[in-house]
Specification:
A hairpin with a 3-residue loop joins strand 14 and strand 15. The chain has seven helices and 16 strands. Strands 8, 9, 10, 11, 12, 13, 14, 15 and 16 form a nine-stranded mixed sheet that branches. Strands 1, 2, 3, 4, 5, 6 and 7 form a seven-stranded antiparallel sheet that branches. Helix 2 crosses helix 3. The longest helix is centred in the last third of the chain and has 15 residues. It folds into two domains: about 110 residues, Aminotransferase class 4, branched-chain amino acid transferase, N-terminal domain (D-amino Acid Aminotransferase, Chain A, domain 1, 2-Layer Sandwich), CATH 3.30.470.10; about 160 residues, D-amino Acid Aminotransferase, Chain A, domain 2 (Alpha-Beta Barrel), CATH 3.20.10.10. The protein has about 290 residues and is α+β, with helices and mostly antiparallel strands. Helix content is about 25%, strand content about 30%. The mean pLDDT is about 95. Bound molecules: pyridoxal-5'-phosphate. The site of pyridoxal-5'-phosphate has 15 residues, from helix 6 and strand 14.
Length: about 290
Protein backbone atom coordinates (compact mmCIF):
# COMPACT_ATOMS: atom_id res chain seq x y z
CA UNK A 1 0.00 0.00 0.00
CA UNK A 2 1.16 3.50 -0.76
CA UNK A 3 2.68 5.46 2.12
CA UNK A 4 0.68 8.51 1.05
CA UNK A 5 -2.04 9.58 3.51
CA UNK A 6 -5.49 8.48 2.47
CA UNK A 7 -6.58 11.97 1.45
CA UNK A 8 -3.63 12.49 -0.88
CA UNK A 9 -3.80 9.86 -3.56
CA UNK A 10 -4.45 9.56 -7.25
CA UNK A 11 -7.63 8.00 -8.52
CA UNK A 12 -11.34 8.62 -8.21
CA UNK A 13 -13.96 8.32 -5.47
CA UNK A 14 -17.68 7.86 -6.06
CA UNK A 15 -19.43 10.71 -4.25
CA UNK A 16 -23.19 11.27 -4.35
CA UNK A 17 -23.68 9.68 -7.74
CA UNK A 18 -20.56 10.74 -9.60
CA UNK A 19 -16.86 10.01 -9.80
CA UNK A 20 -14.75 12.85 -8.41
CA UNK A 21 -10.95 13.22 -8.30
CA UNK A 22 -9.66 11.48 -5.14
CA UNK A 23 -8.32 14.65 -3.48
CA UNK A 24 -11.62 16.49 -3.99
CA UNK A 25 -13.83 14.00 -2.11
CA UNK A 26 -14.27 16.22 0.95
CA UNK A 27 -16.91 17.03 3.57
CA UNK A 28 -17.59 20.23 5.51
CA UNK A 29 -16.53 20.58 9.19
CA UNK A 30 -20.17 21.16 10.15
CA UNK A 31 -21.23 17.75 8.87
CA UNK A 32 -23.91 16.38 11.21
CA UNK A 33 -22.53 12.83 11.30
CA UNK A 34 -19.05 14.11 12.16
CA UNK A 35 -20.50 15.73 15.27
CA UNK A 36 -22.93 13.01 16.33
CA UNK A 37 -21.42 9.75 15.01
CA UNK A 38 -24.26 8.60 12.74
CA UNK A 39 -22.36 7.63 9.61
CA UNK A 40 -22.71 4.00 8.56
CA UNK A 41 -20.13 2.17 6.52
CA UNK A 42 -18.92 -1.11 5.05
CA UNK A 43 -15.59 -2.78 4.55
CA UNK A 44 -15.28 -5.09 1.57
CA UNK A 45 -12.41 -7.00 0.08
CA UNK A 46 -11.44 -7.19 -3.55
CA UNK A 47 -9.97 -10.45 -4.81
CA UNK A 48 -8.85 -10.73 -8.42
CA UNK A 49 -10.59 -7.41 -9.19
CA UNK A 50 -13.97 -8.62 -7.87
CA UNK A 51 -15.70 -7.61 -4.62
CA UNK A 52 -16.44 -10.56 -2.33
CA UNK A 53 -20.04 -10.66 -0.97
CA UNK A 54 -20.83 -7.29 -2.56
CA UNK A 55 -24.61 -7.76 -2.39
CA UNK A 56 -24.55 -8.70 1.30
CA UNK A 57 -22.39 -5.68 2.16
CA UNK A 58 -24.51 -3.30 0.08
CA UNK A 59 -27.67 -4.60 1.73
CA UNK A 60 -26.12 -4.17 5.17
CA UNK A 61 -25.15 -0.57 4.36
CA UNK A 62 -28.78 0.29 3.64
CA UNK A 63 -29.99 -1.69 6.66
CA UNK A 64 -27.47 0.04 8.97
CA UNK A 65 -28.72 3.46 7.83
CA UNK A 66 -32.34 2.45 8.46
CA UNK A 67 -31.45 1.34 11.98
CA UNK A 68 -29.90 4.72 12.78
CA UNK A 69 -32.88 6.56 11.30
CA UNK A 70 -32.22 7.44 7.67
CA UNK A 71 -32.55 6.08 4.15
CA UNK A 72 -29.61 5.76 1.80
CA UNK A 73 -30.88 7.50 -1.37
CA UNK A 74 -29.67 4.69 -3.65
CA UNK A 75 -30.78 1.13 -4.24
CA UNK A 76 -28.67 -1.90 -3.41
CA UNK A 77 -28.14 -2.38 -7.17
CA UNK A 78 -26.94 1.22 -7.56
CA UNK A 79 -24.51 0.82 -4.67
CA UNK A 80 -23.24 -2.44 -6.17
CA UNK A 81 -22.73 -0.84 -9.59
CA UNK A 82 -20.95 2.19 -8.07
CA UNK A 83 -18.69 -0.09 -6.00
CA UNK A 84 -17.70 -2.11 -9.08
CA UNK A 85 -17.07 1.12 -10.95
CA UNK A 86 -14.61 2.54 -8.38
CA UNK A 87 -12.75 -0.76 -8.22
CA UNK A 88 -12.43 -0.75 -12.00
CA UNK A 89 -11.57 2.96 -12.37
CA UNK A 90 -8.85 2.72 -9.69
CA UNK A 91 -7.46 -0.51 -11.15
CA UNK A 92 -7.77 -2.36 -7.82
CA UNK A 93 -7.09 -6.10 -8.02
CA UNK A 94 -6.26 -6.96 -4.38
CA UNK A 95 -7.81 -4.37 -2.15
CA UNK A 96 -10.49 -2.90 -0.03
CA UNK A 97 -13.73 -1.01 -0.66
CA UNK A 98 -15.12 1.48 1.85
CA UNK A 99 -18.68 2.67 1.20
CA UNK A 100 -19.95 5.23 3.71
CA UNK A 101 -23.22 7.13 4.17
CA UNK A 102 -23.68 10.16 6.40
CA UNK A 103 -25.85 13.10 7.34
CA UNK A 104 -24.73 16.38 5.78
CA UNK A 105 -24.27 19.92 7.05
CA UNK A 106 -27.77 21.38 6.73
CA UNK A 107 -28.47 21.32 10.48
CA UNK A 108 -26.25 21.46 13.58
CA UNK A 109 -28.57 20.48 16.45
CA UNK A 110 -28.85 16.96 17.82
CA UNK A 111 -32.08 16.61 15.87
CA UNK A 112 -31.24 15.32 12.40
CA UNK A 113 -34.39 16.57 10.68
CA UNK A 114 -33.50 18.31 7.43
CA UNK A 115 -30.04 16.78 7.03
CA UNK A 116 -29.29 15.50 3.54
CA UNK A 117 -27.88 12.00 3.18
CA UNK A 118 -24.61 11.59 1.33
CA UNK A 119 -22.83 8.47 0.12
CA UNK A 120 -19.24 7.91 -0.92
CA UNK A 121 -17.39 4.80 -2.05
CA UNK A 122 -13.61 4.51 -2.15
CA UNK A 123 -11.48 1.58 -3.28
CA UNK A 124 -7.76 1.12 -2.80
CA UNK A 125 -5.11 -1.61 -2.86
CA UNK A 126 -4.78 -3.41 0.46
CA UNK A 127 -2.79 -6.56 1.16
CA UNK A 128 -3.64 -9.21 3.77
CA UNK A 129 -4.28 -7.62 7.18
CA UNK A 130 -1.88 -9.86 9.06
CA UNK A 131 1.31 -11.35 7.66
CA UNK A 132 2.23 -15.00 7.25
CA UNK A 133 3.57 -15.21 10.81
CA UNK A 134 0.19 -14.31 12.33
CA UNK A 135 -1.69 -16.50 9.88
CA UNK A 136 0.46 -19.44 10.97
CA UNK A 137 0.97 -18.80 14.69
CA UNK A 138 -1.98 -16.65 15.63
CA UNK A 139 -2.48 -13.17 17.02
CA UNK A 140 -2.52 -11.95 20.61
CA UNK A 141 -5.68 -10.51 22.14
CA UNK A 142 -5.96 -8.43 25.30
CA UNK A 143 -9.35 -8.26 27.02
CA UNK A 144 -10.65 -4.72 26.87
CA UNK A 145 -12.06 -2.75 29.76
CA UNK A 146 -14.72 -1.47 27.34
CA UNK A 147 -17.82 -3.57 26.84
CA UNK A 148 -20.17 -3.93 23.90
CA UNK A 149 -23.35 -2.10 24.88
CA UNK A 150 -26.78 -3.69 25.21
CA UNK A 151 -29.06 -3.54 22.16
CA UNK A 152 -31.35 -1.18 24.09
CA UNK A 153 -28.41 1.14 24.82
CA UNK A 154 -27.08 1.50 21.26
CA UNK A 155 -28.07 0.45 17.72
CA UNK A 156 -25.82 -2.60 17.93
CA UNK A 157 -27.05 -4.31 14.74
CA UNK A 158 -25.88 -1.34 12.67
CA UNK A 159 -22.35 -0.85 11.35
CA UNK A 160 -22.53 2.68 12.63
CA UNK A 161 -19.44 4.84 13.22
CA UNK A 162 -20.42 5.80 16.77
CA UNK A 163 -20.13 2.19 17.89
CA UNK A 164 -16.48 2.12 16.83
CA UNK A 165 -15.36 4.67 19.41
CA UNK A 166 -14.93 1.91 22.01
CA UNK A 167 -13.32 -0.35 19.41
CA UNK A 168 -10.62 2.23 18.72
CA UNK A 169 -10.04 2.75 22.46
CA UNK A 170 -9.80 -1.01 22.98
CA UNK A 171 -7.58 -1.61 19.98
CA UNK A 172 -5.18 1.20 20.83
CA UNK A 173 -4.90 -0.01 24.44
CA UNK A 174 -4.20 -3.57 23.25
CA UNK A 175 -1.55 -2.46 20.77
CA UNK A 176 0.12 -0.22 23.37
CA UNK A 177 0.42 -3.30 25.62
CA UNK A 178 2.05 -5.37 22.85
CA UNK A 179 -1.06 -7.25 21.67
CA UNK A 180 -2.53 -7.09 18.16
CA UNK A 181 -6.21 -6.72 19.00
CA UNK A 182 -8.66 -6.60 21.87
CA UNK A 183 -11.21 -9.15 23.02
CA UNK A 184 -14.40 -7.31 23.89
CA UNK A 185 -16.88 -8.65 26.40
CA UNK A 186 -20.49 -7.51 26.32
CA UNK A 187 -22.58 -5.67 28.90
CA UNK A 188 -23.34 -9.02 30.59
CA UNK A 189 -19.66 -9.99 30.81
CA UNK A 190 -20.00 -12.55 28.02
CA UNK A 191 -17.42 -12.95 25.26
CA UNK A 192 -18.57 -10.79 22.32
CA UNK A 193 -15.99 -10.22 19.58
CA UNK A 194 -12.74 -8.50 18.66
CA UNK A 195 -12.70 -4.85 17.55
CA UNK A 196 -13.44 -5.69 13.92
CA UNK A 197 -14.01 -9.42 13.79
CA UNK A 198 -16.14 -12.21 15.24
CA UNK A 199 -14.78 -15.02 17.41
CA UNK A 200 -15.01 -18.83 17.29
CA UNK A 201 -13.83 -21.41 19.82
CA UNK A 202 -13.07 -25.03 18.94
CA UNK A 203 -14.06 -27.32 21.79
CA UNK A 204 -13.92 -31.10 21.38
CA UNK A 205 -14.25 -30.87 17.61
CA UNK A 206 -17.24 -28.51 17.68
CA UNK A 207 -17.38 -24.80 16.91
CA UNK A 208 -18.74 -22.52 19.61
CA UNK A 209 -19.46 -18.88 18.87
CA UNK A 210 -21.31 -16.16 20.80
CA UNK A 211 -24.90 -15.47 19.78
CA UNK A 212 -24.75 -12.16 17.89
CA UNK A 213 -27.39 -10.34 19.91
CA UNK A 214 -25.40 -7.16 20.65
CA UNK A 215 -22.75 -7.06 17.91
CA UNK A 216 -22.50 -7.61 14.17
CA UNK A 217 -23.44 -11.00 12.80
CA UNK A 218 -20.52 -10.73 10.37
CA UNK A 219 -20.78 -11.69 6.73
CA UNK A 220 -17.50 -13.61 7.11
CA UNK A 221 -18.87 -15.26 10.26
CA UNK A 222 -21.84 -16.59 8.28
CA UNK A 223 -19.63 -17.60 5.35
CA UNK A 224 -17.26 -19.53 7.63
CA UNK A 225 -20.22 -21.20 9.37
CA UNK A 226 -21.38 -22.43 5.93
CA UNK A 227 -17.89 -23.72 5.17
CA UNK A 228 -17.74 -25.46 8.56
CA UNK A 229 -21.14 -27.10 8.03
CA UNK A 230 -19.96 -28.39 4.65
CA UNK A 231 -17.04 -30.01 6.48
CA UNK A 232 -19.51 -31.60 8.90
CA UNK A 233 -18.64 -29.55 11.99
CA UNK A 234 -21.37 -28.86 14.49
CA UNK A 235 -21.79 -25.16 15.32
CA UNK A 236 -23.13 -24.05 18.66
CA UNK A 237 -24.22 -20.41 19.06
CA UNK A 238 -24.52 -19.63 22.73
CA UNK A 239 -23.51 -17.37 25.60
CA UNK A 240 -19.78 -17.88 26.19
CA UNK A 241 -18.10 -16.63 29.35
CA UNK A 242 -14.41 -15.67 29.57
CA UNK A 243 -13.93 -18.29 32.33
CA UNK A 244 -14.38 -21.04 29.72
CA UNK A 245 -11.83 -19.75 27.22
CA UNK A 246 -9.12 -21.98 28.69
CA UNK A 247 -11.15 -25.04 27.71
CA UNK A 248 -10.88 -24.21 23.99
CA UNK A 249 -8.41 -26.22 21.92
CA UNK A 250 -8.36 -23.58 19.18
CA UNK A 251 -9.65 -20.04 18.81
CA UNK A 252 -9.94 -17.97 15.64
CA UNK A 253 -11.43 -14.70 14.40
CA UNK A 254 -13.42 -14.04 11.24
CA UNK A 255 -13.95 -10.74 9.45
CA UNK A 256 -13.69 -9.14 6.04
CA UNK A 257 -10.40 -7.48 6.93
CA UNK A 258 -8.73 -10.29 8.94
CA UNK A 259 -10.36 -13.12 6.94
CA UNK A 260 -9.80 -16.24 9.12
CA UNK A 261 -7.02 -15.61 11.62
CA UNK A 262 -5.98 -17.89 14.50
CA UNK A 263 -5.68 -16.54 18.04
CA UNK A 264 -2.52 -17.65 19.85
CA UNK A 265 -2.91 -15.68 23.07
CA UNK A 266 -5.73 -14.13 25.10
CA UNK A 267 -4.30 -12.30 28.11
CA UNK A 268 -2.31 -15.03 29.97
CA UNK A 269 -3.91 -17.93 28.08
CA UNK A 270 -2.10 -19.63 25.20
CA UNK A 271 -3.71 -21.53 22.33
CA UNK A 272 -2.21 -23.67 19.61
CA UNK A 273 -3.15 -23.20 16.00
CA UNK A 274 -4.98 -26.40 15.23
CA UNK A 275 -6.29 -28.38 12.28
CA UNK A 276 -9.87 -27.04 12.28
CA UNK A 277 -8.71 -23.42 12.12
CA UNK A 278 -6.21 -24.31 9.40
CA UNK A 279 -8.87 -26.17 7.43
CA UNK A 280 -11.38 -23.29 7.57
CA UNK A 281 -8.66 -20.77 6.81
CA UNK A 282 -7.73 -22.76 3.69
CA UNK A 283 -11.40 -23.20 2.71
CA UNK A 284 -12.02 -19.45 3.09
CA UNK A 285 -8.94 -18.61 1.01
CA UNK A 286 -10.06 -21.04 -1.68
CA UNK A 287 -13.55 -19.50 -1.73
CA UNK A 288 -12.25 -15.94 -2.05
CA UNK A 289 -10.01 -16.99 -4.92
CA UNK A 290 -12.91 -18.51 -6.80
CA UNK A 291 -16.38 -16.98 -6.48
CA UNK A 292 -19.05 -15.91 -8.92
C1 LIG B 1 -17.05 -4.77 15.13
C2 LIG B 1 -17.05 -5.77 14.02
N1 LIG B 1 -17.44 -7.03 14.27
C3 LIG B 1 -17.44 -7.98 13.32
C4 LIG B 1 -17.05 -7.68 12.03
C5 LIG B 1 -17.02 -8.75 10.99
O1 LIG B 1 -17.98 -8.49 10.01
P1 LIG B 1 -17.78 -8.93 8.49
O2 LIG B 1 -17.43 -10.37 8.52
O3 LIG B 1 -19.11 -8.67 7.90
O4 LIG B 1 -16.70 -8.10 7.93
C6 LIG B 1 -16.65 -6.38 11.72
C7 LIG B 1 -16.25 -6.01 10.37
O5 LIG B 1 -17.06 -5.49 9.63
C8 LIG B 1 -16.66 -5.41 12.73
O6 LIG B 1 -16.27 -4.16 12.47
Amino acid sequence: MSALPLENRDGVIWLDGELVPWREAKVHVLTHSLHYGSSVFEGERVYGGKIFKLKEHSERLLASAKIVGYEVPYTVEQIEAASRLVVEKNGVTTGYVRPIAWRGSEVIGVSAKGAKIHVAIAAFPWPAYYGEEARKNGIKLLTSKWRRPAPDSAPTASKCAGLYMICTLSRDAAEAAGFQDALMLDYRGQVAEATGANIFLVMDGKLHTPTPDCFLDGITRRTVMDLARKRGYEIIERAIFPEELHKAQEIFLTGTAVEVIPVGVIDELKFTVGPITQQLQADYTALTQNFA
